[in-house]
Structures are given as structure tokens and as C-alpha cells.
Design brief:
The structure is a homodimer of 488-residue chains. Chain A has 488 residues and is an alpha/beta fold. Chain A is built from 16 helices and 20 strands. In chain A, helix 5 packs across helix 10, helix 11 packs parallel to helix 16 and helix 13 runs parallel beside helix 15. The longest helix of chain A is centred in the C-terminal third of the chain and has 29 residues.
Chain lengths: 488, 488
């Protein structure tokens, strides 16, 4: 197993190719590291100027005042062998090679990459890349990618064979309060391969869920073996791109990856307990679910809805995905029957017929969460629905029949009630160890997907549509069933 | 065919049950109509107070100073027969019955609904509902629903058998600049049925695309017949909920609709040229695509991407949905070969290898749009990508090496360049009559999905993910093929 500790936990860093030209990689990495809160030493390396962003620059790695733990290389492909020799001369064994123009760029690059890999292997040098968009470790605020995206700290770690797909996922994570542990743009994987990162993250105590975007694998067998081990400890979610002929041809020209038959891949992944995703959106939703929620013990879903139509749509989605909506057990039925109007739905989904009545939806939530009849609960339209009430108030205010002060009060009231409801959902998940999925249906654009409460094991994931929630629940159930089978 | 003109184009309105209690339906409808910009006369009707929101109230419809074109009823179910008699006495023939507690609420309600329907039929009264969330006609700014959502004017009209699903779609439309024509919450369809609205919208010159959310149909055969006629003139997009046993049981308790076999439905819908959706998100994406973009003549897609991974994902999605990525024709190849670095992808997708170089992506866009080899073009990551550049500038600014003034300038510059690119896309769509789908991939939350330019037939729809764009393109191709088959 490769030891990647110095890559993720360096005490000191050098950036070769450092520059104040802000639209170059030597500036991206340097500014991201400096501005991102990394606490170790950071050395710009360049021959072009004496200082970079106010820091004294060294002309080469040989001139560094101390041998650093990790070197980022951003200079052109023709220079990297010399930089590697400089690293070796200072006993530096860990490198992130941003530089492109290797095997992804044709025959000449392929020859150069082989020389780089041979040199690294011969001198015991670990290389991330080449042609990588960089790495992140939120634990020490080491943000070292080209896109300057800085998601918050959390348990989801990402291995991406594509820089732009990786950036996309991290940008979403940042925007939605989805916590990230480590990120690796694995690039051409000349020295350290996808499987090595996976093996490392398997052991990483800061990582609770692993996301992998792959276009091709050099050693598919080893990857599957590691997956089979890792999935016993933490969920592994994989998006394999290049599934089709068109896709694999595109992948071949992109990372040079040779795609195998996707059916073979997919069946091997599933047999290894991997959760298979189709696209980056899936990756984001699935990782949030697996990182935040308890696993369901079975496939029986209780649905509470503020409106009938959403209940119908959710029931369809559940059944189409192999989840079932059992009838309400007698105790839940009696409880709800005593509270709801006489024409209530008398079944699952429980339709609150448009009444955002707090006592009602709280009691329904308590009853459904506590019931042994359900392995998971989906709640449609309670979270977010206060926004309609605010809209009503705003209208009446514009007409001159309500005050801005009242609106501010109402906003505070609703925000407090919603936060309280989310806290209750967390408490219920902690108590009953079953996932509860609130779906906001009409979210405001600035809403975050993940809501966390200090000191709690579980977090709330707020979905915008029933189909997203049901999709995640199905995959949670699949993984839960896999674990049950493996342990028996 | 039912004449619904007075429902959508009333010169005068009365709201029965008008109240200043802002969380009651009598206030929702009245404030929405008054604050929404409706230019006709509006009369509150109530016995409880002499004025409502500053307007003199009438005690009953009989007391109105003039017979209005349209009456909204929000009073309890037991009162509606009397109100209908009042309407008849003033020769008022058009009613929107918000009131619930009818067939959706059990046997007693069913009896009452029958009485209402019989009275309406006997007296030639048109009723929207009962149990409707209201109607909208943007042409005359008649916003008369309970949720106070006010999407902008446009060509998409909606018939929804569920109020909350309808609200959800309209709220999204409002947020994403998706233009709406008419909206009908059809409720229990006691008198006017889904098919009647469809027939009316078929003839409506303000409607270019029709969305339908249905849980059940009383006369499926007539619905299909109307669809078959309408789809020759404009796209009809249908979400049929209650596809599964669980879903149809939920639907039965919701609208009382008896669901038929979904397979029968789906095949009849497809044979009638209907575009079939699975969930409300589909409805929104599909309606924007059909309302904004030219139809593709075939299934050959050209892809331009800022990053390799997105290209791979898009190629997979295309092939999995029956679309093809033909090789680049010689003229396009030569053009791009003269501009791109020697290691470019030399194929379709055209990978701009991370260079957001304006000349490059413009030339690629011109060449792909003009080429006879492609029926549609997908462009990944150009729109939206400037945001990464702004992020870079912000970082350097925080470090003290760039100014806020420069940032403001840069923001203006990028916004201008992006708007210009979107204008170019519109021009190219007008010129070549083929859809061009930009995908922003990393959108900001406040981004709008639809970009329009005054005086142009087509609009740009900006998707957030490749899979959304490919999904819409597939359905456009399906409809285009259907029309070709029908016309031959």
C-alpha cells in the first residue's frame, strides 16, 4: 500500500512555476493554498522573479531553504524531468504534477510520460498526475486545485479521473453545504493509480464515503478487490463514464483510458458492493445521503405529504424502484384519525390536505418515525412551505394591509420553526436509526441541501423533488441489503 | 367545444368569501387578483364586513352592481348551491369553485358534488373545479391561484389535476424565467374536464406548448383523440401519475380518480404524439425546450466541451438515449485543426482542453452549427465558466494583489461576453433551425434557465447538467420523428 500521508498532510509545500499572472496554474495553486488557510510553509519556485505575491521565490527546488514535504509542478512538460531530479537531490518524494502534455496529448507525450514514470519509480517518488487539477484536504485546509473551489470539511472523499467533473462536484458540494474530506484529481495516473487512492481512503479515518469518477482502469481486478474490502467499512459510489461506444471513444481521446465492456464493469462493481451512479448529479445526491443518513433496514416507506399530488408521484417512484408503501398500522391509523379531518386519506401516503398545521405534521412525523411498520419516512412539502406564507404576507403588505415589521417577525418565526423541525428530524433519526427524507419541493435558490446540528451523528438532507429522495433511498436500501448478505 | 373565454378573459370578477384574514382562500384569491395587475373590475362578496381591503363588499352575488363575467367561490361546500343559484339569477355562467369537501372527501361530498354538477348542467354554468387551486392567464395578468405565484408571460399553458403539483411547476417557472400562458388547476372536474381545457388550449393562439398533469381521466378515449389532433399543431407533454398500484391507490384517495393500466395509457399517449414525462422536473425541462428551441431534423449531435470528462458523460447519455455522435466532417475538422493545439481530440466531442478562449469556442460553435452533419449542438461549460475566472480574481484581491474596481470591470466584461454568446446562439438557431443546448455545469444559484432576446422566435435554454440537455433533445427528436411520420 502506498503511503500518501505527505501528499495530504504536508508540513511544507513548494510551487514550481509560481507566478503573479493570475490566469496561470502557477498562480491558481499558490493563491489557493495561501488564501485557503493552509498553515504550513509555502515556497514559490521560479526563475522569473525574486518574489511572488510578496514571498521570496527560489530559483529552483535545489535552492529551497529546507526540503519540503510536497512539490507542486506547474511548469511545461519538457521541464518536469529536471524538476524531478531537483526533488530527488533534496530527498523530496512527493509531487503533485499539474503539468499536462503527456500521454493524453499523443505519442510524444506518451514517451515523455514513460520517462517521468520510470524516473519516479526508480527514485521512489510518488506522483499525483500528471495532468491533474490538484488535490484538497479539508482537514488541514489544503485547497490546492486550479478552480479555487473550497467546500467545507466533511466525510465525503473524491477520486476523479477528470478535472472538470471533479470541479463540478466540488463546486456543488461547496454551494450545498456538503462536507468534503479529501479530493484527488488523479489525472493520467502515471505513478499513483485510482486503486491506490481508494486503498488509502479506505484506511482514512476522516473519510466516511468515497466517490469515484472513472473513465478507465489499468488494473480493474485490483480495483474490484479493494472495493470489495472497502465497502464493508464505508460506502463506495462509482460513476464509470465511457459506458457506450461513443462515450468510450471520447474517453480514449480524453484520458487515453481504454474502456472495457460496461456490463462487465457494472456487474463486477455491484458484486463488490459498490453503489453505481450514472452521472455527476447522482454522485452528489448519493454521497450526501450516505454521508448524512442512517441506512434503512428494509424497503418499507412511510410517506407524509402536504398535498395529494406529491404523494401520488412519490408512491409511483417508490414502487417503480422496488420500495413498498405498506398500509398504516392500527396505532398510527388511530393516532392520525383522531387529529385529521374526517375525509383524510386513511392510508399511506398520509395526506395532510394542505394544512401546514404544526401539531398535525409533528404528530404524523413522530408516529411514522416511531412505527415498526416503516424503515424510512419521506416528508413532502413541510420544509420550505413557509415560503408560500411569506409570499402571502408580502402581497398583503404591498397592498398596505400588513407591515414590514410583521413580515420580519414572520420570517424569524418560520425560520425558527423550520430549524426546529429539522432538529427534530435529526433527533428522530438518532433515536430510531432510520432515514427521514424531507422534500422541500419549492425551495428557494439559496437553500442548502444539507442541514447539520453540532454534536449529532446524522444530518438532514433536504431534497428538492420526491424522485431525488426516492432514488437515494433505493440505493441506500440496496447497500443495506448487500451488507446484510455479506455479514450472513 | 366549451367556450371558456369568460373564464380566462373576464372583464369583471367577484370573489365570494372575500376576507381580510390573510391565511384564508377568500384573501388569497382577492389579494392575488388585485395585486397581480388584473385591469378589470373586482368585487368582494361577503356578509361579514362592509369593506374588504378597502373595497366595498356586497352581501351576495345578487347584490352586485353589475353581473360579473366570472365568480370565484371560496365559501364552504354547504354554501355553494346557494351561490350558484345567485349566479344563475344574475345570468352569470362562469364560476371558479375553489371550495373543497366534495367527491374527494367521501360519500357525503360525492352527493353534494352531484347536486352541484346537475345544477350547473341544468343552468348552463361552466365550473372550474370544485376543489381547484385556481387559474392564471398571464395575457391579462389574471393571477388567481392560492399560492400567489406569478410566472412571466409566455407560451406554455398548464392543466393540472393536482393543485400542489401545479403550484410547484409554476413556482419553478417563475424562478427560472419560464414564460407561462394559461394555468388551470382542474380540481375534481365536475363540469369542465381535462379534455375540455385541452381542446380550448389547442385553439388558443397564446399557447405554444401544453403541459398536462393527470391522475385519472373520465373519458380517456376523447382525451387521446384531442391529443392526436392537438399534437399536429403544438407539443403536448403529459405526466400521468398513478402509474403503479401504490400510486393509483394514492390517487384514488386524492382526487378520487380511478387509474387505468398505465401501459395502456402510455402507449395510447405515444401513439397520439404526446411527449410523456415521468415527474414534474421533466415537465419543466421539456416545456422549456419545446417552447424555446427549434426541433432537430434528425438524431445527429455535435458536442463542444470545455473539459474532457463532460464530453464523455454527454457521449454516454446521447448513445444511451438513441442519439448519435457522428465523426467531424472534413470541413469542420480542418477548421478546428487549424486553431486547436496539436493534441486536440480530433473528433466529436470537440474538446477545447480547458481553454475558454473566445475565438476558439466561437469558431467551433459556428462550424458545428453550420454543418450539415449535425442536427443539434450541445455546448458544455462555456456558459457559466467565467465564474471560475471571477473566483480567481476574488482570491487574488483578498490577497491584496488586485483591486475591487478591476473585479467590477471583469464582472461586467464577462457578463457582456456571456450575453453576447447567448445572442449568437439565438441567431444561429434562427439561421440553421437546429437546437443548440448550452450546459453551464457550474451554475450560480441565481441563474435563470431561459434567456430571451426581444423580437426573436427562439430562446436559449441553459441546462445545468448534460443529462438534462440530452433528455430534452431525445424527446424533441422523438416528437420531430412523429410529426414526420404523420405528415408522410
Amino acid at each position: 500500500m502506498k503511503n500518501l500521508d505527505k501528499i495530504f498532510y504536508p508540513r511544507s509545500i513548494a510551487v514550481v512555476g509560481a507566478t503573479e499572472n493570475k490566469f496561470k496554474w502557477g498562480s491558481f495553486i499558490l493563491t489557493n493554498v495561501l488564501d485557503g488557510g493552509f498553515q504550513g510553509s509555502v515556497y514559490p519556485v521560479t526563475r522569473s522573479s525574486a518574489t511572488v505575491y510578496g514571498r521570496n521565490a527560489c530559483a529552483s527546488v535545489r535552492d529551497l531553504p529546507q526540503p519540503v514535504d510536497l512539490v507542486f509542478i506547474t511548469t511545461p512538460a519538457v521541464t518536469v524531468l529536471e524538476v524531478l531530479r531537483d526533488c530527488a537531490s533534496r530527498n523530496i518524494k512527493d509531487v503533485v504534477m499539474i503539468t499536462s502534455g503527456f500521454s493524453e496529448a499523443g505519442d510524444e507525450g506518451r514517451v515523455l510520460e514513460k520517462a517521468v514514470v520510470d524516473y519516479a519509480d526508480g527514485n521512489g517518488i510518488n506522483i499525483v498526475g500528471p495532468n491533474t487539477m490538484g488535490i484538497v484536504n479539508t482537514a488541514n485546509r489544503l485547497y490546492a486545485t486550479g478552480t479555487l473551489v473550497r467546500p467545507m470539511k466533511g466525510g465525503i472523499s473524491i477520486i476523479a479521473q477528470s478535472g472538470n467533473v471533479g470541479s463540478q462536484i466540488m463546486e456543488w458540494a461547496e454551494r450545498q453545504n456538503v462536507g468534503i474530506g479529501k479530493f484527488i484529481g488523479s489525472g493520467n495516473e502515471g505513478v499513483i493509480r485510482c486503486e491506490d487512492y481508494l486503498e488509502y481512503l479506505d484506511r482514512d479515518k476522516d473519510t466516511s464515503v468515497i466517490l469515484v469518477y472513472i473513465e478507465g482502469l489499468d488494473d480493474g481486478r485490483r480495483f474490484m478487490e479493494i472495493c470489495r474490502q472497502t465497502t464493508l467499512r464505508k460506502p463506495v459510489i462509482v460513476l464509470k463514464a465511457g459506458r457506450t461506444l461513443a462515450g468510450s471513444q471520447a474517453a480514449a481521446s480524453h484520458t487515453g483510458a481504454m474502456a472495457g465492456s460496461y456490463r462487465t464493469y457494472e456487474s463486477a462493481l455491484r458484486q463488490s458492493g459498490v453503489i453505481v451512479a450514472q452521472n455527476p448529479t447522482d454522485l452528489l445526491y448519493l454521497s450526501s445521503a450516505f454521508d448524512s443518513l442512517p441506512l434503512p433496514r428494509g424497503n418499507r416507506v412511510g410517506v407524509i405529504t402536504l398535498g395529494g399530488g406529491w404523494g401520488v408521484i412519490t408512491a409511483d417512484e417508490c414502487e417503480e424502484r422496488g420500495l413498498v408503501l405498506p398500509p398504516l398500522p392500527p396505532d398510527v391509523y388511530r393516532k392520525l384519525d383522531s387529529m385529521l379531518p374526517p375525509f383524510w386519506s386513511r392510508g399511506n401516503p398520509v395526506d395532510l390536505v394542505g394544512q401546514p398545521d404544526r401539531k398535525l405534521y409533528l404528530e404524523a412525523t413522530y408516529a411514522m418515525a416511531a412505527s415498526e411498520a416503516f424503515d424510512a419516512v419521506i416528508i413532502l412539502g413541510i420544509v420550505g412551505s413557509a415560503k408560500f406564507a411569506l409570499r402571502i404576507h408580502e402581497t398583503v403588505m404591498r397592498m398596505g394591509y400588513a407591515s414590514r415589521e410583521d413580515l420580519v417577525e414572520l420570517e424569524k418565526l418560520f425560520a425558527g420553526l423550520q430549524a426546529n423541525f429539522l432538529d427534530i428530524i435529526i433527533d428522530l433519526m438518532e433515536k430510531y436509526r432510520k432515514p427521514i427524507y424531507p422534500v422541500s419541493v419549492v425551495p428557494w435558490p439559496d437553500d442548502k441541501m444539507v442541514y447539520a446540528k453540532e454534536g449529532k451523528r446524522y444530518k438532514v438532507v433536504i431534497h428538492k423533488t420526491p424522485e431525488e429522495a426516492v432514488f437515494c433511498l433505493e440505493r441506500q436500501f440496496e447497500y443495506s441489503s448487500y451488507l446484510k448478505k455479506r455479514s450472513s
